[in-house]
Write a structure and sequence with these properties.
Blueprint lengths: L1 H5 L3 H9 L8 H9 L8 H10 L2 E6 L4 E6 L2 E7 L12 E4 L2 E10 L2 E13 L2 E5 L15 E3 L1 H10 L5 E4 L1
Parallel strand pairs: 1-9, 7-8
Antiparallel strand pairs: 1-2, 2-3, 4-9, 5-6, 6-7
């Protein structure tokens, strides 16, 4: 079901909601529905809606290699991160945290890392997580995830909950 929704455009989700097939979804749930479907450009109006919401959300900026935790329009935490390399980029868009694990094994064709701390998946296999195996924060070196120093990852893990919006641009 999630894969089905991930492949649909925002327009389809909006059309379903407008025609009443959603069963009475409010604006907050609309944001979450869109969060699971949007990958690409982040619009300023989406950022403004998050800022007006008063809710917790996370912004990841690939250009500046920063992550900012927000409570509505107030920055509550900021940290330097490492996002994906050019050949394994971190996807842009608006997502939401789908699952959280205190530790997880992360594997790919050319890596196998046990005990990755404070993992928060927000889109398929893409996650915000602690990285104990490097200290090159501020440089895009990951396979697409957002690497955070373990102490910062622990703070974010405690602060964010499932459903917290994640904006990657």
């Amino acid at each position: 079901m999630i894969k089905y929704w991930k492949t649909r455009s925002t327009a389809l989700v909006t059309a379903l909601l407008l025609t009443g097939l959603s069963g009475g979804v409010n604006l907050i749930n609309l944001d979450r529905a869109i969060a699971q479907t949007v990958s690409g450009n982040v619009r300023n109006q989406d950022i403004q809606r998050l800022k007006r919401s008063g809710q917790r959300w996370i912004e990841i900026n690939r250009r500046s290699q920063t992550l900012i935790a927000w409570q509505g329009n107030r920055q509550v935490y900021a940290v330097i991160v490492s996002t994906g390399k050019s050949d394994t980029p971190t996807p842009t868009g608006i997502f939401s945290i789908q699952s959280k694990y205190p530790t997880a094994r992360m594997q790919g064709e050319d890596y196998n890392v046990p005990d990755v701390p404070h993992v928060m998946y927000y889109s398929g296999n893409y996650a915000i997580h602690g990285a104990y195996w490097h200290r090159s924060f501020g440089i895009p070196i990951s396979h697409g995830c957002t690497n955070v120093a373990p102490d910062h990852a622990a703070w974010l893990y405690r602060w964010a909950s499932i459903g917290t919006s994640v904006v990657v641009r």
